[in-house]
Amino acid sequence: MTADDTATGRHTADVGDEDGSPAGDGDPAAATGPSRDLRDASRADKWSVAFVMLAAALWAYFAYLMLASYGPELHDGEPRCKGPLIEPFEQDGYYCHSELRQWPALLGILALSTVASVIAAATTVHARVLARLAGRAPSAPVPPS
Predict the structure, then answer these.
(1) Integer angstrom CA distances of residue 140 from 1, 14, 16, 51, 143
(2) Looking at residue 133, what is its pLDDT?
(3) Which end of the chain, N or C, is less surrounded by CB atoms within 10 Å?
(4) Which tens digit of pLDDT belongs to each residue from 16-48?
(5) Burial class (CB in 10 A: 0-12, 13-18, 19+), 142
(6) Which H or E run includes 129?
(7) pTM of the prediction?
(8) What is the distance between the alpha carbons of residues 82 and 77, in angstroms, rounded to a whole number?
(9) pLDDT per residue of the chain (145 residues) written in tens, 0 to 9
């Protein structure tokens, strides 16, 4: 207790904030308890799920471009061109020319997939750490220094 508190008869338990306003006056900016931490953890978890879905979609699109056959069908119903991973060398004719199946475009999609995966992993770890820290409440009050 300070000299002011002794003179006015107030105890530190009666005072909520430094400015003398009562504790829990409804100021959302002053709320720094576990509920805010849980809300932040929930928000980070939702973002991590979105990034995981984006990364999965990009990886699926990359796999489709690498593996799927394309081009006009032959008389037996088989597509004329194979995917770059199945048949990696240039195919004859202009039928097999596809901008998305060229290596620079494929490497660009691979780079986007990798970046999305790294961001998804980092956001997931961040959300888990926030959730764990929000669940941990101090066991004993910290004495004033």
Answers:
(1) 20, 19, 18, 38, 9
(2) 86
(3) C
(4) 444 444 444 554 544 556 688 888 888 999 999
(5) exposed
(6) helix 103-135
(7) 0.64
(8) 13
(9) 455 555 555 544 444 444 444 444 554 544 556 688 888 888 999 999 999 999 999 999 999 999 888 877 777 777 778 888 877 666 666 667 778 888 889 999 999 999 999 999 999 999 999 888 887 655 555 567 6
Q: How far apart are CA 35 and CA 60, in angstroms?
A: 37
Q: Are the CB atoms for 18 and 25 separated by under 8 Å?
A: no
Which phi and psi (to 5°) does residue 44 adopt?
Answer: -65, -35
User: In which residue are the tokens 């009562």 written?
Assistant: 22
Cβ 91 vs Cβ 74: under 8 Å: no
Q: How far apart are CA 134 and CA 35, in angstroms?
A: 8
Displacement of CA 127 from its chain's centroid (Å): 8
